[in-house]
Amino acid sequence: MSLPPWLAWAREIQAIAQSGLAFTRDAYDRERYQALRALAARIVAGHSDAEPARVEALFAEQAGYATPKVDVRGAVFNAAGEILLVREVVDGGRWTLPGGWADVNLTPAENVVKEVIEESGFEVRVRKLAAVLDRDQQGHYPPLAFSTYKMFFICDIIGGSAKTSLETSEAAFFAEPALPGDLSFGRVLPGQLRRMFEHHRSSGLPTDFD
Known about the structure:
By secondary structure, the protein is an alpha/beta fold. The protein is built from five helices and eight strands, in the order αααββββαβββαβ. A five-stranded mixed sheet has the order 4-1-6-5-8, with helices on both faces. A three-stranded antiparallel sheet has the order 3-2-7, with no helix packed on it. It is elongated and about 60 Å long.
């Protein structure tokens, strides 16, 4: 599914407003950028169930020059060549690769290691960066208010055991022919999982991008 034009426009307006507010020293320009931010919020709210004030508050939390957000995902494989998936507590209890938004003061690899152990109970070592993908170009649904890059890492287990968390209700391994159909499409897609199997089998594959 392609990005709706209205969302692309709203994002661009919000990014202009955010970056403008970060650098302007003129009080009148500040008012104009705040008005642009409110306009972007109304566009998003007008095409969704969200309240304009709530969307504007979300936008107002963003500071500094506007850049894409980063989502990290760990493709963890066991000795049998099966991939680890976790069942989300939210999103209807669907399956996904463990991961989430990257935290500050951690490297990308450190972030994915943290997410995997928190959501599945397994300690892992990152083997390679498999892909850096623009979420909007992949067909994820539903679309997000912010532009997002997704980073996929191939990981090997070095310890731990399957555990649930506040965010996950189950952790299990799946062979490629037996992947579950109820995936969380906002987080991972079937084609991405198949590509992770290819990277696992062929470590020399270059990193996918865009």
